TrEMBL record:
CDD domains: PASTA_pknB. It comes from the Bacteria. Residues 43-116 form the PASTA domain. This is PASTA domain-containing protein. Keywords: Membrane, Transmembrane, Transmembrane helix. InterPro entries: PASTA_dom (IPR005543).
Length: 199
């Protein structure tokens, strides 16, 4: 009888110990997961967390680039410096000054150049357009562009036969200042500027 009671007592001790070990193991696992999750949270005071890895947005429509860059904490700015969202699919990114894969800190400006299909299809300068030189030796043309953008300023460098065009536009009901160069090579439209957001 004493032997049976001793055996039962021993089994109880083993069972309780097994339960305690299991509970302890589960608790340690939960704590480890919790602490590892906390450790992975960005710390604004740590400069390493302000670095972003620049994605490749060349060939993307502006809305696609917008999603990629804002997901990394980048804020879109137009050339005029006004914050705005880039949602118009007519804009296509053709160049970026920060190479894909390069790390940039929170103070870095990322310049994206965009092209617009409807600009590439625009008729060239009118041969009979009057030419008026400005004080920098550039030639100001009165062209068909002024029909569409009466506030546009555009000049041609007589040496390169390229036209520089600046005009006001509206995207998503927000005013935008657009600079572009039109010439024998593909249309260059600059710039959409992206800056890092505070974390």
């Amino acid at each position: 009888m004493d032997h049976a009671q001793s055996r039962r007592r021993w089994l109880w001790v083993v069972g309780i110990a097994a339960v305690l070990i299991a509970v302890l193991a589960i608790s340690l696992g939960v704590l480890r997961s919790a602490f590892s999750g906390i450790a992975q949270q960005p710390d604004p005071s740590d400069p390493a967390w302000s670095l972003v890895n620049m994605p490749d947005v060349v060939g993307d429509e502006a809305s696609e680039a917008h999603e990629k860059l804002t997901a990394l904490g980048l804020v879109p700015l137009y050339a005029g410096g006004e914050e705005a969202e880039v949602l118009a699919d007519a804009w296509t990114i053709y160049a970026q000054d920060l190479p894909a894969g390069q790390l940039a800190d929170a103070g870095t400006h990322v310049i994206l150049k965009v092209s617009e299909p409807w600009l590439q299809a625009t008729t060239p300068l009118e041969a009979e357009a009057p030419e008026i030189c400005d004080d920098q030796g550039r030639v100001q043309h009165q062209t068909g562009y002024q029909v569409d953008w009466p506030n546009a300023l555009h000049w041609s460098n007589t040496e390169s036969d390229r036209v520089w065009l600046r005009y006001d536009a509206t995207i998503d009901d927000r005013p935008v200042l657009v600079d572009c160069v039109i010439g024998p090579s593909p249309v260059e439209v600059a710039v959409l500027q992206w800056d890092t957001a505070p974390r």
